[in-house]
Structure formats: C-alpha cells, structure tokens
Amino acid sequence: MRFECRNFGAPDLPRRGLTASSAPLEILLVDIEADLVISDDGRIVWSEEAFPVAELAYGLARWLHLADHIREDFTFDSSYDEPGAVRIVATDEGWRVGSVFAADAQSSPVPWESLVPDLLAFIEDVRAGVGTHGVNPDFVPRF
Question: Is-above-0.90 flag for pTM?
Fold first, then answer.
C-alpha cells in the first residue's frame, strides 16, 4: 500500500488574500494541495489532482492516535459532496483502502501492522511538502 503526493501547492491562498504564514489552520488544511496517488503493488487504486493532502494527513494522524478499541473505519470527507474520497475499512482479511469515487478499485487487505507504516510515511511526506512552502508542518501531528 502506498500513498504518494506530488506537486504541492496552495494556489487558493492568494485568491483569499492570505499567505502561508497568515492563513488560519482550517484554511491551510483545505488549501494545501498535491496530486495524490494511492497504489497497491503498482496498481493504482485511486488518484486525484489538487487533493487536500494536508487535511488528509491531519485526519489520518488523528485517526491513528485513537485507541484501538474505539477506532472505526476511516472516511475522509473534506469538501467533497460525498463522504469517502479516501476510505480505510476493516474487513475479516485485513484493512482495505479505496475511494467512493472508484468503487470497483480497492487495495488488497493488509494487516494493521503493515498499514500503519505506510500511513506514517505519507504523513511525513506531507509534512515535508508543507514545509517547502514556508508553512510550519507542526499543524499536521506526528504519530
């Protein structure tokens, strides 16, 4: 399982009259974007250009911090009309990653112990990408 992001940017900040240093957290989360690709053994499960990766990383970090006994499936909503742009669902075989926008594509099931390092790597990639735009990446929690 691999979450990749490329081409970081925040093109909407100037339109809002903001800079990376003046924007509040809720704006940074939705305005910092990158091209997102979720793949499984080289097979693309879902991809989207200009995806709010900072908000996804923030949501994943918060989800990973939950205690195991209260952690439910992960569903990323953001500004999409339909919940589930990114979904991580527990099954009897393991955790599957997919998107409501690609209902026929989902990852192979993976155990929690394999999923977590992949998600942590994505979060760190987003933190690094955010930092290259002059934003303190600490608003995306580390696990």
Answer: yes
